[in-house]
Amino acid sequence: MKNFFASPLWREFARIVAAVLAALLLGFIITLFVSDDPVGAYRAFLLGPLTRLNRFGDWIEESITLIFVGLAVALVFKAEQFSLGAEGQLLLGALVSGSIALFVPLPAFIRIPLALLGAVVAGFLWGVIPGYLKAYLGANEIVSTLMLNAIALKIYDFLLTYHIKPPNAGYTASETFTADGILPNFIPPLPFLADIRKLFVQQTNITVALYIMIIATLVVYFIMYRTPFGYELRMVGANIKFARYGGIDTKKVILLTMAVSGIFAGLAGAHLSMGIHTKLILNISLGLGFEGIVVSLLARNNPLGVPFAGLAYGYLRAGADIMERSSDVSREMVLVIQAIIILLVTAERIWPLAQTRLAARRAEQEQAPAAPAASH
Amino acid sequence: MPLDVVLRGIFSALFVASVIRISTPLILPALGGLVSDLAGVINISLEGTMLAAAFVGVVVSAYTQNVWLGVLAGMLAGLGVSVLLAYFHLYLKTDIILAGIAINILCTGGTIFLLYILTGDKGNSSTLASGAVPNVHIPFIKDIPGLGTILSGHNVLTYSAFILTWLVAVFLYRTPFGAHLRAVGENPEAAASVGIDVVRTRLIALCISGWLASLGGLNLSMAYLTLFQRDMTAGRGFIALAAVFLGGRTPWGTLIAAIVFGFADALSNQLGSLKIPPQWVQMIPYAATIIALVGYNLRRRAQAAERARRFQEKHLTEMAAAQAGTD
Asked: Model ipTM?
């Protein structure tokens, strides 16, 4: 047991928990200043998602999206590629899966897998572009993915406004998908589960995306740690020059990493369109690509950690929504907390620095009683 | 018929003036992005910096009823945000991109959070009586038809955007510190080896960057509009970053690239009457940026290959000469 507590893994974990707790504490201090009932507000924030089934559902749905995006980000970040392209891949994933769900007249058991496949392909291809530009033409992936995000958003808006939206609709959104285009509830329609299934269908949108998410997590773990490609990916991330000298085709790895990452961002889009909204709407994402970065960071880019990080972060977001509805504190508080978490988790030197300070103080305290003794 | 309406719209002095007006909140942060990028620190947080400055400018000008105090406070807010970024990146060794993302999130959330506390509204600050920076009417030029519309009557910040482009060019290429800054961006180890303080140089570059971005933010909330709206930067910080690369990482190139983005935006407004979807026009500058980025890299690569070839040739002739000497 002692070995475990001394292990780097444990230290990483403790460090992230400490960062989250520190951020939550800061959030509470802010709440004290702005709220008439800070304790009530914070209670709603921290316990809200567990108080009702529909709130619980909101939490899980939100987390599933975040976990998909988190997996996408974990892949590229593990290879030290700062691709911010998940947002665009997600949008196109939502667009393609939503279009198939709307317009392809096939029975559900073909249409839904086809729509998911469409989302996967869209995300993959939208990752090939920055991957190729980075690997073979040397284009900075941060700038190129930001541009591609903007282009994807324009494509999404254009197709939704001019082609997908029913001509006489008052606002810019597609028609609601029929049951043949909506992901089914996660509880199978078995007779002995009928009651509980009915409850969940009425109050939540938790769908089979839950199972897809679990499989996706295992797949990413398998790719990263059990395949030659995953080994090469990690080598590129650890030291790209060393990887190149070792005979790894680093260009191919970079291209593939960004493309494979798109698969999972595409699935996040499919979950948004076919699971949560059940139609295509404007502003379907609103920066979820960036939220995925937080999730991946909290998981230290480890795919097996992503679901836990996604659930934790989804909990904070769901809690913030409830806090806004039931108190005088607005939900943007969670953005402030989120920013503090990122800064505290990523500041490489903050813990060594804190340790040095602590050690210095301890040394001082030990010296303090020693000093009078010496003067005698 | 609608086509000539559009064409007449585009070739009018009013349209050119509107391009200049729309470009201003892109030029200023783009110059900021250029300065930090040349110092080797890519500033993702231009967006957040602009938001913070736009918000603080409006609030302070509303509470003090003094426009210039608002502008000053907005600049300080922008500087503060940059110092925070610099502290985390340079001192606590946070990755610059992740720190930048965190700061964007902080500023987006923070401004809405505070807006709600101050006004009870999460959308905009219309209940606050905030100020606007004055417009400048240039004597004589303002009376010339056409030219007067284009050149005169803009706000102070628009003029300063053009003057600052020139100042940034002078600063980067005509001052010792500018040379140091570019050296640090080009090769930090080499710069450090000749005694340049890399951390200090980058700190100053980030501060300049934040200050320029804050002017862009102030232009949005105290000139372009005279109130603060949530997320009012709407991605301009990222477009500014793109303009740096589209402009080939030079001050004048960046200025022109920012105006190209402004032009596309103004054009897409005009095209409404032509039934061309505005999304297509708005997409062009982003695609152009990617192409420019690739072109820039290929050019640099070709230059490096050329240098290597010349060095090799020179080396070979020297070797041959030495050989001939010993023989």
From this structure: 0.81
